[in-house]
Amino acid sequence: MGRFGPVRLSISGHVLLYTAYIPAVYSPGMRSATSKMTKTGARFRAGAALAGAMCLTLALTGCGQGETTAPSTARTYAAAGAPAPFGAVDCREAKCIALTFDAGPSEYSARLLDILKEKQVPATFFLLGARHLEKYPELVQRMDAEGHEVASHTWSHPILTRIPPERIREELGRTNEAIERLTGRKPTLMRPPQGRTNATVHEICGELGLAEVLWSVTAKDYTTNDSALITQRVLAQSSRDGIILLHDIYPGTVPAVPGIIDALKERGYVFVTVPQLLAPGKAEPGKVYRP
Fold first, then answer.
1. Residue 86 reports pLDDT greater than 70
2. Which of 80, 192, 261, 262 is surrounded by the most beta carbons within 10 Å?
């Protein structure tokens, strides 16, 4: 079994404290603890647990992003076009927070969309192409129709800093085309797998009209199916202008969402999409955004 331990990380003069999950040795043949988990979810859970621990300890590679732009900074540069499908929200005044989901759609996404519709909460979905977007096109269309932001998480989830530029273009370009085909709009946002990016990724994203979006809150839902624990982790880390990272591919995540929404609303938070969080600023291609 793995364990949790503190990690102290300094990036650009800022000291960050994390409770990182340190996994036990992973065997490719390891069986999932939950029979409901899909094969895709199992692969992501094992890989992400190991990568997450490594990512926190590597300030200059992987998660070392270089210069990033905070939502509050983006808001100082007014730009037209930030959508507000659930009503205009001025995050310069309101206590905003963004709920984001990676690596879907999946068999759990329809229920998630039901919850978001009932709670009148917009979200930002960073979608995978292979075995996800191409398997559930109707869910992608529903996300767009119901006012959520549809964005890219690449086609097949490679670590972008480890592949050549031409493949980075293919991973992002193919996903862009598929999303545009389904929604009528090219995505303007992407999230690099495991948050790993570098100058080459920035440049290619700029060419393709994509801004990179990282996060400030993670439940590490790839390490547990305990919905109560997922909720606890999110609430413990949430703050104004936060970007919450969850995955709608794990069986414990979607059941945690109603409690997360209700608790944060009670604290005075207003849920927005990532573009709304930046408005009246607008995400600029090639830039990296992180609270």
1. no
2. 192
What are the backbone angles phi and psi of residue 73, rounded to the nearest 5°? Answer: -70, -45
**CA torsion angle 47 49 54 57 (round to 10):** 160
Question: Choosing from 14, 102, 202, 262, which is the catalytic residue?
Answer: 102
| Residue the block writes with tokens 């039901």 | 114
Answer whether 121's CB lies under 8 Å from 98's CB. no
The model carries a pTM of: 0.79
In this predicted model, what pLDDT tens digit does every residue of 127-185 receive, in sequence order? 999 999 999 999 999 999 999 999 999 999 999 999 999 999 999 999 999 999 999 99
Report the sign of the C-alpha dihedral through residues 128, 174, 115, 278, in that order.
positive
User: For residue 39, how many other CB atoms are within 10 A of its CB?
Assistant: 9
- The one catalytic residue in 132, 221, 247, 248 is 247
